Amino acid sequence: xxxxxxxxxxxxxxxxxxxxxxxxxxxxxxxxxxxxxxxxxxxxxxxxxxxxxxxxxxxxxxxxxxxxxxxxxxxxxxxxxxxxxxxxxxxxxxxxxxxxxxxxxxxxxxxxxxxxxxxxxxxxxxxxxxxxxxxxxxxxxxxxxxxxxxxxxxxxxxxxxxxxxxxxxxxxxxxxxxxxxxxxxxxxxxxxxxxxxxxxxxxxxxxxxxxxxxxxxxxxxxxxxxxxxxxxxxxxxxxxxxxxxxxxxxxxxxxxxxxxxxxxxxxxxxxxxxxxxxxxxxxxxxxxxxxxxxxxxxxxxxxxxxxxxxxxxxxxxxxxxxxxxxxxxxxxxxxxxxxxxxxxxxxxxxxxxxxxxxxxxxxxxxxxxxxxxxxxxxxxxxxxxxxxxxxxxxxxxxxxxxxxxxxxxxxxxxxxxxxxxxxxxxxxxxxxxxxxxxxxxxxxxxxxxxxxxxxxxxxxxxxxxxxxxxxxxxxxxxxxxxxxxxx
Amino acid sequence: xxxxxxxxxxxxxxxxxxxxxxxxxxxxxxxxxxxxxxxxxxxxxxxxxxxxxxxxxxxxxxxxxxxxxxxxxxxxxxxxxxxxxxxxxxxxxxxxxxxxxxxxxxxxxxxxxxxxxxxxxxxxxxxxxxxxxxxxxxxxxxxxxxxxxxxxxxxxxxxxxxxxxxxxxxxxxxxxxxxxxxxxxxxxxxxxxxxxxxxxxxxxxxxxxxxxxxxxxxxxxxxxxxxxxxxxxxxxxxxxxxxxxxxxxxxxxxxxxxxxxxxxxxxxxxxxxxxxxxxxxxxxxxxxxxxxxxxxxxxxxxxxxxxxxxxxxxxxxxxxxxxxxxxxxxxxxxxxxxxxxxxxxxxxxxxxxxxxxxxxxxxxxxxxxxxxxxxxxxxxxxxxxxxxxxxxxxxxxxxxxxxxxxxxxxxxxxxxxxxxxxxxxxxxxxxxxxxxxxxxxx
Lengths: 487, 442
Known about the structure:
The structure holds two protein chains of two kinds.
Chain A: E1 2-8, E2 11-17, E3 26-30, H1 37-45, E4 52-57, E5 60-62, H2 67-72, E6 75-78, H3 90-94, H4 108-121, H5 137-150, E7 155-159, H6 167-182, E8 186-190, H7 194-200, E9 203-208, E10 211-217, H8 223-231, E11 249-258, E12 262-270, E13 274-279, H9 285-292, E14 300-305, E15 308-310, H10 315-320, E16 323-326, H11 330-334, H12 341-346, H13 350-353, E17 354-355, E18 358-359, H14 361-375, H15 391-405, E19 409-413, H16 421-436, E20 440-444, H17 448-454, E21 457-462, E22 465-470, H18 478-485
Parallel strand pairs in A: 3-8, 3-9, 6-7, 7-8, 13-20, 13-21, 16-19, 19-20
Antiparallel strand pairs in A: 1-2, 1-4, 4-5, 9-10, 11-12, 11-14, 14-15, 17-18, 21-22
Helix pairs in contact in A: 4-5, 14-15
Chain B: H1 3-28, E1 30-33, H2 38-51, E2 58-64, H3 69-82, E3 86-93, H4 95-108, E4 114-117, H5 119-135, E5 143-145, E6 150-153, H6 158-183, H7 191-210, H8 216-243, H9 248-267, E7 272-273, H10 281-284, E8 286-287, E9 290-291, H11 292-310, H12 312-322, H13 324-329, H14 334-360, E10 362-363, H15 371-381, H16 393-412, H17 417-441
Parallel strand pairs in B: 2-3, 2-4, 4-5
Antiparallel strand pairs in B: 1-6, 7-10, 8-9
Helix pairs in contact in B: 1-16, 2-3, 4-5, 6-11, 6-12, 6-14, 6-15, 6-16, 7-8, 7-9, 7-14, 8-9, 8-14, 11-12, 12-14, 15-16, 16-17
């Protein structure tokens, strides 16, 4: 790709970007949210057309007008949001769109054999007949990759493939990528986790504000270099943990049970404390937080706030008592994407902005503008539609809406997933400010450096149960956590 | 295309369609207009007096019977008296009577310089006077005056425009509730049946509490019963949708049949008369020259617009339609909001039923048949997305107007009923197509 330009109304999203991918290499694409990574790969996938510039494959210029063109050119893109049909089997999903004709009898046997073969290559043990909704997130990721490989793609683009995976599953993914490289397949890998880039990438291309700021071989790059190239300034410390005074127990739960996902879970978070709740994906962390927030009802167990028992029947009750939940999936649970920033921000706060249900629009607007300035939300204004914001800014809007509530207990589920280094840093600083004010934070995260870097105490879950606790965080290692997490 | 232009088009595209339809029907219905009424009488007299000195002269007022003929004749007479003329006779009659009136004046021998007539009688006089004046010389000096005509579209006449508004008022008012339901990604098929149910309940309550001579209090009591009954049915629908998660389409389909059947059973299959003509006040009455139904419609649209744009409830409705899970996790009382919109739609359908019953002073179990489809069509044509989360109250008003204008225009131009149905269908399809294209542009 060379000299690529793309303009959207009001935004020059890509300015003269070049990108080069060799056979059998893994090229990492790094940049902050809104730097233009997604726009760039959407051009490879046929979702956008470049305004200027050319795309060539093996030296021949090609035109990608739609997903079919991309597949025909041997380019497969795995987007951050999976594109699997939940009620079809793994096999059917893999071969969806590759049926030999419009109306025909499907070569089920051949497809099954091919699917088994693909899964074998990927080192996964998945029955092709399993419905996709019954697969774990990691398995769905494998199905996505298998789907891409089934088209005989020569170039594989992966947008945040590790975001939903636990560390062990990420290792598996890396083995798959190494295997693909050996077979001469070129890979473009997008991730915000710098550690992964060191393990998996051969070269790194940096984007900043839609411009190409450099391409470097991984050998010789340091974390600091990477951050500086991405952000344009250096960040001394990735996890700016500050020591705060820890007070009384703010929220506690005892013997929570709900199905297999939550079994006899008891934990507590004190004033001014950040408790890191970690474990493998599916170990029951999110489910525990959802019960505390009233999104799901526990089968048994009690929740106590400031020492007295709470009756939380729904999120409304939880919000009223000062508990808020930053959901792990902001697009499907955190935001009403079709509505504006203002409307999203207002949702849990309308009571304080209105009298007899009549909203004081001026006060609401100036409040979101204040939060926008403090959190440095990049938006055209409060009337921008939430769907058009980048991931980090969407997360900041969700944060703003809870900050305005002035909640005492903040349940953060993967607060920095899919967010760039700069915005992450701002969110960590925000967490520091919150605990300094005596708030209690329960931070769920799969990113172990983050858990180690920001928590005062770490609680590890495994298969729905709390398996262990680490109180001496400064001297703990990722291995310590993993030992507990795998049971 | 320029982005601003695109946005304008997508926001106001339906208004543009409405204006174009209005223009089109105006052009094809341009006709010679013969004004009648007070204003026409006044200007006619002014013309006459300014051209010829006429103080004390005799006048015959000649107007065809029927329509607003009597009022026009009275206006002409009183203007003539005011101008100092002597009105010999006011004839509001058929050609035979006009002939008699002319002959009797001719026989009396009075001079008759002025005949003030409407269009029909002027034609009659111009034909008959030459012949009559040979027998009655006093008629030979008579000159016929009629208000000057001008060209104007029948479509754009004030009565016609008011008529359109009156015709859409029931559909438009119910469409307010339907818009809110569709914004929450639901649907309500029962509103047509609820119109009949409300009308029948209203008439029956009036009959049972008021007997043969119901008072105004009884009328109000009946109307409230009808509206509240429908509100309770709407609440039941909302409860079924939220508590059991049954799709609204199915619940309201069931309610549609039940309500229709109950209307016929309660009414014993016959329209129920209301024995007090005052009951027609809502459906037929006027205030400040505007029909009460139209004023009510305007008031409700303004209130609904404020509700949707300026209150928490409105925000909640949009949020529930846009992403119910995110709304719930933001503390929105999702179930309450759903029950609210179905209840409100039921109340508005009940009100529509009372309006309809008031218009005919009868509770008719056949009322509102298939009207739910017109209501849904108005909402969809108005740009509300069936997928939920998007839609504007005034868009719905424009949608109802578009449908009303098309029906009215086709009636004026003499398109027959079956063809009208075809045109409706095509208009709805085009509206949905435009909606999809709009989504694509974004």
